[in-house]
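To: structure subgroup
Subject: Chain for Friday's discussion

All,

I'm putting the inputs and outputs inline so they're searchable in the archive.
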Amino acid sequence: MLEIHGGTPRDEEAREQLASALPDDVEVGEPDEVGVFTVTVEADDVDDALTIVWDGVAASGADDHLLFLEHPELPEHWRSRSGTPGSLPGSLG
């Protein structure tokens, strides 16, 4: 994952809030020099792991400060959850 604002105090707080919102067995690593950090989850498959972290981000309100990075083995993993313009109910297009 990535701290959006380069490790500001609010980004650090958001990472800590994410860690608190996740199950106890999930490990949230320390950010590197550009704000990239890992989240390690035990799950049945990748989709379950992503859902656990996705739910943690939502529960912690950290979505304005933390981003999912694309993993080389999971290109566009977020796309199935995001939809496309015009695909949401009530949208134009």
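Points worth raising on Friday:
Residues 2-72 form one domain.
Residues 46-60 form the longest helix (15 residues).

D.
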